[in-house]
Amino acid sequence: xxxxxxxxxxxxxxxxxxxxxxxxxxxxxxxxxxxxxxxxxxxxxxxxxxxxxxxxxxxxxxxxxxxxxxxxxxxxxxxxxxxxxxxxxxxxxxxxxxxxxxxxxxxxxxxxxxxxxxxxxxxxxxxxxxxxxxxxxxxxxxxxxxxxxxxxxxxxxxxxxxxxxxxxxxxxxxxxxxxxxxxxxxxxxx
Length: 190
Ligand code: IMP
Prior knowledge:
six-stranded mixed sheet; 6 strands; alpha/beta; 190 residues; Maf protein; 6 helices; 34% helix; globular
């Protein structure tokens, strides 16, 4: 029997909140959004973004339960990992269509979604968890589910893009799921 645990998450992204909430619900964790403005820095690694965000939150509010912050990105091999840590900016500016233009005529289409999640405990200690999923960039965007670059990414072993899958299927294999799974293992052990 799993104990009900309460967790906060620092994010403004409704799609991400919905995904993580569903994942945690299935293991008896209740997730709520931390209603605090936060600064998202631009850094060279996902971990730096996560650690800065959590440090900042810790300096501002006192916590009665653990809080998580995640940062993810799409890393395309032939573009030397771009958009990677610049994924949010790339989404806001060039979007899926812009990335497809950059990949036009390119036969090498390997890519990876990566997530880093930080778990901040009320005593100030932080643990980091990582998850990734490999796949490829399609030639044309497909599907309406999910968010961000979901319409242009097909995970290995599938023909559908993330945006063509229902949330349950994506949530069972995604980078975020893999990072959150290790976090949950730790959290429920403790
Ligand atoms: P974030 O900083 O974790 O919100 O992720 C940065 C950007 O990466 C987002 O704005 C999305 O465009 C993209 N991204 C992250 N995770 C996913 C995902 O699961 N599917 C599609 N795009 C994603």
